[in-house]
């Protein structure tokens, strides 16, 4: 189900073997995280409900997954070019984190950037309200 303000964003990895579509508003809240993984990758992402994300046919064969720590987050990346264009975040295991830089140009109208202190994950998770971003919007 999409709200009237949702648009379809397309995106994927550098070599274009992993492609996807996601339905969400044209304005999103993106998280700049300093956890060990996000900091090394320079990842900035926004979170959507899993039901709003669609992986293109054939893309799955080019994906592999890395986990660490609690193994809740599923860091998916392309086996060919190594880009993480989306993943399942620890903060929102019922959602999908979309890498802002991997969204094709033209559909994101505004990105509000917020910092997430992933080095102090437990405390930040409670204060941030990030868990609500993977929940469907109220009609």
Automatic annotation (TrEMBL):
Family matches, as PROSITE patterns: CENP_V_GFA (PS51891)
Annotated GO MF terms: carbon-sulfur lyase activity; metal ion binding
UniProt entry keywords in alphabetical sequence: Metal-binding, Zinc
Residue ranges of every copy of the CENP-V/GFA domain listed in the record: 9-122
One Pfam family from the record: GFA
Positions in coiled-coil regions: none
PANTHER family: CENP-V_GFA DOMAIN-CONTAINING PROTEIN, CENTROMERE PROTEIN V
Family recorded in the similarity comment: Belongs to the Gfa family.
This protein's name: CENP-V/GFA domain-containing protein
Species the sequence originates in: Eragrostis curvula (weeping love grass)
Upper lineage: Eukaryota, Viridiplantae, Streptophyta, Embryophyta, Tracheophyta
């Amino acid at each position: 189900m999409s709200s009237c303000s949702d648009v379809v964003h397309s995106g994927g990895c550098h070599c274009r073997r992993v492609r996807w579509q996601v339905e969400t508003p044209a304005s999103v809240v993106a998280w700049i995280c300093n956890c060990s993984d996000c900091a090394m990758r320079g990842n900035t992402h926004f979170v959507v409900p899993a039901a709003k994300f669609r992986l293109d046919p054939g893309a799955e064969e080019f994906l592999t997954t890395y986990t660490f720590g609690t193994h809740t987050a599923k860091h998916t990346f392309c086996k060919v070019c190594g880009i993480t264009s989306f993943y399942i975040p620890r903060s929102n295991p019922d959602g999908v984190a979309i890498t802002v830089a991997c969204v094709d140009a033209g559909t994101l109208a505004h990105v509000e950037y917020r910092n997430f202190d992933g080095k102090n994950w437990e405390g930040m998770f409670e204060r941030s309200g990030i868990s609500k971003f993977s929940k469907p919007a109220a009609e």
